[in-house]
Specification:
homodimer, Arc Repressor Mutant, subunit A, 82% helix, DNA-binding
DNA sequence: CCTTTCGCATACCGTCAGTACGCGAAAGCT
DNA sequence: AGCTTTCGCGTACTGACGGTATGCGAAAGG
């Protein structure tokens, strides 16, 4: 195996195993020794690829955010109508957030580990950007009233994040439908 | 000084200093040695009063939540009309969340330190309960449509938490007014 | 075939949360 | 008052953690 291949494989294994452990136990409860044991390497390898525990977490977070962003964008783009794209994207975000990786890594640990400011910047670049773009286009198209977009994005993004976490612990499968209905009603209020 | 007085004073000093440090640096970046130094005691005293670092944080969080709950309830109760109570309470929550203690301790660190489940239970008992009660009363009174309350509470609670954090880093003072306006529009959609 | 590169292992360090135990002063008891 | 018990807290220690310095051995380059 060539050196480049070996390097890539080690890096991918570290990302995979750390993501698994972070998801299962949370950032604080996972030691570097557990990660390198699971990956079959040593701390030397880890520090050769990443600047430390937080940097490793950052790389894992980037993966998760990229996956969520792709899923949301794909679902939204399937709708021809601009308004339907917004609704479909929001529903897709709720669905994607059912993934335990998303919940623990992206919604719970990330703000505390990276600080809220950095988390917000990454969230903006990944998923919230789609929401921001959609709302801007809808305003340009005259579908919803002209108003500041930034506060709306934060309100809606926060609502969806929190609802997603709540749905994770919910026993009643009807809760997802109820939440989507309530969220849709909130969105509809923008069209009024 | 009597033993009871001494005990009480040590406990209060520990709570005060740890709250100050947690707010300034965040839970993870504060060591127990810093806390006991600031309080003028030793780790023996800390472990005599609390079961550990997480338990100390829990006690601090309870303080913060209680303060926020009181402020929100007081503002809401000043309104005679049931609907105005809801709006006033939500606005009061946004205002109260401008406090750095609330942001760092209650909104950022608490979910990661205690886990989201415990955080949610405490949040429910403290501040979200008021929101839940208000919505239930409004449904009983026929002011808003009959619908599941729990998803609404999570959506609105999450929206306000996130908006509060965003407002904290906002430079434009008009953002608060814009956010309150957007939030009010969301609430109005319930009356439709 | 010799040299350089570099991916990674080994061994170590400072700091942290948490624990075991002892002291000394206040509180109860006769 | 004196004697004992209680208990608030200090002291001294431990294991585990994140992080660093350094060395080795195989692949790449000439």
């Amino acid at each position: 195996m060539s050196r480049a291949e070996q390097r890539e494989q080690t890096r991918r294994t570290l990302l995979r195993e750390s993501r698994r452990l972070f998801t299962a136990k949370g950032y604080g409860a996972v030691g570097l020794s557990q990660i390198v044991n699971a990956a079959g390497v040593t701390k030397g390898a880890l520090y050769h690829h990443f600047d430390g525990k937080a940097a490793l977490f950052r790389a894992v977070l980037a993966q998760v955010q990229e996956e969520v962003g792709r899923r949301v964008a794909a679902t939204a783009d399937a709708e021809p109508d601009l308004w339907d794209q917004l609704v479909a994207g929001c529903h897709a975000f709720l669905t994607a957030s059912a993934d335990p990786d998303v919940q623990r890594i992206m919604l719970i640990d990330a703000p505390a580990v990276l600080g809220w400011n950095e988390w917000r910047a990454l969230d903006e670049a990944a998923s919230a950007r789609h929401l921001s773009d959609a709302l801007t286009h809808l305003i340009e198209a005259g579908v919803i009233a002209r108003q500041p977009v930034a506060p709306l994005v934060r309100l809606l993004s926060g609502a969806m994040n929190e609802a997603a976490l709540w749905l994770a612990t919910s026993a009643d499968p009807g809760d997802l439908a109820d939440t989507k209905a309530a969220l849709t009603r909130m969105l509809e209020s923008l069209r009024g």
